[in-house]
Write a structure and sequence with these properties.
71% of the residues lie in helices and 0% in strands. It has helices spanning 2-6, 14-28, 33-46, 52-63, 65-90, 92-95, 101-110, 116-125, 133-137, 144-170, 174-202.
């Protein structure tokens, strides 16, 4: 079944790929579709194989945006928890085997100063790859509960847009879909041009403290 529907799978084509996922779920696994989509919401955070936007878009297309938001929010939070504690258990040397060092360095540089948590929230709002955040933050002295709250809140806007767009396409409500796309493009464009000024305004002091894996368990609570 996987080969049948995913032989032409293309993560660059959001609508076509979401339709393939929808057909895969509704035709071959209609009775366990919810658990599968829930697992994918967790899986894309722990191992970034399929884009998060695609999973949310497809879930909205299949189950509507309220259910997609529920699955996405809970699933992404669980995925963030797993990634965060994997980093604290495995340590930096192991994490850098599957997370690029340059991405780690960029995030460490951005999260400088006493407003680093606000900067992190802004990063979640921006159209940036977010799934490796959990691994990096697991290597720092940030309190686990603080990161989980920021992660849950920060993912909501983008998740809502993709879930809602998936649902509107499934219902053929193209006017709403076009409106959402225009709003998203304008918002992303504004944030893109302002991101450097925002980071420059918020950045202060030294980079976030990276702690040894052996000491990380005590900071997790």
């Amino acid at each position: 079944a996987y080969t049948k529907y995913f032989g032409s799978f293309d993560t660059g084509d959001l609508v076509t790929s979401a339709k393939l996922i929808k057909e895969y779920i509704t035709v071959d696994y209609p009775h366990i579709g919810l658990p599968i989509m829930f697992f994918l919401q967790i899986f894309h955070v722990v191992i970034s194989f399929i884009p998060a936007a695609l999973i949310s878009f497809a879930t909205g297309m299949i189950y509507g945006w309220p259910m997609a938001m529920l699955l996405g929010s809970v699933g992404a939070t669980i995925g963030s928890i797993i990634s965060f504690y994997l980093a604290r258990i495995l340590g930096r040397k192991v994490v850098t085997l599957f997370v690029k060092q340059k991405n780690m360095d960029k995030l460490e540089n951005m999260l400088s100063g006493d407003m680093s948590m606000f900067v992190l929230l802004i990063l979640f709002f921006l159209p940036t790859p977010k799934d490796f955040f959990s691994y990096f933050l697991g290597l720092t002295s940030i309190k686990a509960w603080k990161y989980f709250i920021i992660s849950a809140i920060g993912r909501l806007p983008g998740m809502f847009i993709t879930c809602y767009l998936g649902a509107t396409i499934a219902n053929r409500n193209y006017a709403v879909m076009i409106g959402c796309v225009v709003f998203m493009v304008v918002a992303v464009t504004i944030m893109f041009f302002l991101k450097d000024k925002i980071f420059a305004l918020l950045k202060k002091e030294k980079p976030a403290e990276v702690i040894p894996a052996a000491q990380s368990k005590g900071d997790a609570t």
